[in-house]
Each structure stands twice: as C-alpha cells, then as structure tokens.
Amino acid sequence: MARKRIAPGPFVVPMPTCLIGADVDGKPNFMTAAFVGVVNFKPTVVACGLNPEHHTCRGIEAAGAFSLNVPPSDLVAAADYCGIRSGAKIDKSRALEVFRGELPGVPLAAGCRLSCECKLLQRVPLDVDTVYLAEVLHVYVDEEALSDDQIDWRKVDPLIFTFPDKGYWKLGAFVARAWEIGRQHRPQ
Known about the structure:
Elements: E1 15-16, E2 18-24, E3 27-33, E4 36-40, E5 45-50, H1 55-63, E6 65-70, H2 76-84, E7 98-100, E8 107-109, E9 114-125, E10 130-141, E11 146-147, E12 150-151, H3 153-156, E13 160-162, E14 167-169
Antiparallel strand pairs: 1-13, 2-3, 2-6, 4-5, 5-10, 6-9, 7-8, 9-10, 11-12, 13-14
C-alpha cells in the first residue's frame, strides 16, 4: 500500500463532539469542543483543549469546574450553534435546556444523554489552546441510554467530529470486543 506523508493536524483520529458548560455572569453558557479525551482511569481525568479566550473559559476559571456533555446526533444543530456563536456576543443561556447536579456554577445539558461534572485540576497553556485537566466527579446518564445498567453507546448516539472536512458523524457498527479479539490474532 502506498503511503503519503501529510502535515500534522487535528485529524489524526475522529474526535468526540462535546458541549462544555459553565455559568458565566450567572447564566449557563455552552461551547462546542472536539479536543477532548480521557487521560487517566482512576480517578477519571479528562483533558479538554480550549482556547482560553472563549467566553465559557471565564466560567470554568471562576467555578474551578465545568460540565462535559455528549450531544446525540439529533442535537447536531444546537451543538453546532454553541460552537459558532460566542456567549460574549449573544446570550446562549437558552440554547439548551439546563439541569443542575451538585457542583455550583456547572450547568448540564438536559438534551444530552450523558453529562459529567468535572473539577478543574490544572491548566496547561500551549501556543493557541490551553489544556484543561479535570477530574470527573459525577456522571449523569439517561436511563433510556442504558442496557443492563451499562452505558449503551448506540443509545447515547454521540456525535463524532472529523477534520479537515469539518464533518459530524455517527458511530458505525460494532466490530469486536476489546481484550478478547486479540486472542485470535496470530502474527506472521
């Protein structure tokens, strides 16, 4: 198979589309982010690459916490809206229905089937973005998105973001069970 070397960029793997939420000036505000991933198992720590100039980041800094919400595909228009509109210019407090958990200053998106409350641990400034490292303290999942009391990703229906085509995608078909399928592999 022929290979072509291309310039590095944020397209190494598809990324989750997430709505990051924080109260700013007493109002819920959400921004869309795709540079999000789990970086530690126990405690569960996530890393979010966000430009600190974003309006939502003011709320993250003030509360020392934020929400991480996984929008389903039927919320694609609202999720994209939260990414192309700035809360510094317009009031986005009614862009999504909000519910509250335990952390003050942390709005959660009711339309998302999976939402997390995260406590800010550390900021790592980079050239453009800042990596916000946060511990996931509380997870809220719609009961309808569970199968046998476990998260069923088909029911969560997370949006996947790809670059450079700037596309939103859905999960595809199940392929195999991790930590099992590899037992069948026989290297040559």
